[in-house]
Write a structure and sequence with these properties.
It is built from 13 helices and no strands. It is mostly helical and 318 residues long. It has one domain. Helix 5 runs antiparallel to helix 6 and helix 6 packs antiparallel against helix 12. 31% of the residues are buried.
Length: 318
């Protein structure tokens, strides 16, 4: 903000990114007891390189493909269309992705500790899938329902074209955390070569979807993203499920109660918002009532999952 006020323009965004990375590194250094040394081990390099190199390539591929849509949209459509797409993507990323990313950081070490104990590993994955669905589904469906008052009230009518894009992003985000869990299972079991191959298939599907859908508009591109997101989850869950005897069908059966409750919550929130004229008041009413309705419905229909999630939250706070 200081750089922007001083007239640095878009360079203030560069400064923000660099400062964020620097502060993250300094805080991690302070919180961690580990310190790097100047010793070099050929044995460690030989044992870690196959896993680490594939992890690096996976990260590079993911970084490239996360920013692939903007050039495609900019080439085919207008700068305003890029702005509408980017704004909806930013909101979706800020609200929905932190949960999945935090989950990925926690899941990998937790699963690595259980890799030699198959029953424990399966129970850990099942508990993670149920809990993340309990949290992610209402966030995604709730954001889909309140997209209109959220964008219109906070960013004015000029950004209204972003609303359907944000809603499609929310649908694509439903299965993403489950994909993260299943990919973490394969990585924890040392199957990075398989993960890299699955990523190649996933990225190839993204390119194919873009090639097929870009001529029909941005909404069609996002529908293609929903299809590729579903395909990615099915691929990862198929292979991870074989490794831990926890199939795709079993996973979907376990998260179905949370999905149904979230859909009921979304329908209720939609009708509550329809009774309020003021956009800001509608947003407040929908967000507040959505949380209360979701808790009440889970208590009535999905109580075991809610109780487990509350116990885990209590343990985390303590």
């Amino acid at each position: 903000m200081g750089l922007a006020l001083k007239g640095f323009g878009v360079w203030s965004l560069v400064g923000q990114s660099m400062l964020n990375s620097l502060l993250r590194a300094l805080l991690t250094w302070q919180a961690s007891g580990w310190r790097p040394s100047l010793r070099f081990s050929k044995e460690s390099l030989a044992s870690m390189f196959p896993f680490g190199s594939r992890m690096l390539m996976w990260g590079l591929l993911d970084a490239v493909f996360q920013n692939l849509y903007q050039p495609v949209i900019g080439k085919r459509f207008t700068a305003a269309d890029v702005g509408f797409f980017t704004r909806s993507q930013t909101l979706h990323t800020a609200i929905l992705q932190p949960t999945a990313l935090a989950l990925a950081r926690v899941m990998f070490p937790a699963l690595s500790e259980s890799q030699e104990d198959a029953p424990r590993l399966k129970n850990t994955v099942k508990e993670a899938i149920v809990n993340i669905a309990l949290l992610q589904f209402p966030l995604a469906i709730g954001l889909l329902v309140v997209a209109d008052p959220l964008i219109t009230a906070l960013m004015t009518e000029r950004w209204a074209q972003s609303i359907p894009y944000l809603q499609l992003f929310c649908i694509a985000a439903l299965l993403y955390p489950l994909e993260v869990i299943n990919s973490s299972v394969l990585m924890a079991l040392g199957k990075m070569k398989l993960v890299f191959r699955l990523e190649i298939v996933k990225k190839s599907a993204i390119i194919l979807a873009i090639f097929i859908t870009f001529r029909w508009g941005i909404a069609a591109l996002l529908i293609g993203q929903i299809v590729t997101s579903t395909l990615a989850y099915l691929l990862y869950s198929q292979y991870a499920g074989r490794c831990i005897a926890y199939s795709t069908l079993q996973q979907l059966r376990d998260v179905l109660p949370s999905l149904l409750v979230a859909i009921m919550m979304g329908i209720g929130v939609h009708f509550m918002g329809a009774m309020v004229d003021s956009l800001m008041l509608r947003l407040i009413v929908q967000v507040t009532s959505g949380g209360l309705v979701y808790l009440a419905l889970n208590y009535a229909f999905n109580r075991p999952a809610l109780v487990r999630a509350l116990l885990l939250a209590k343990q985390a706070v303590q």
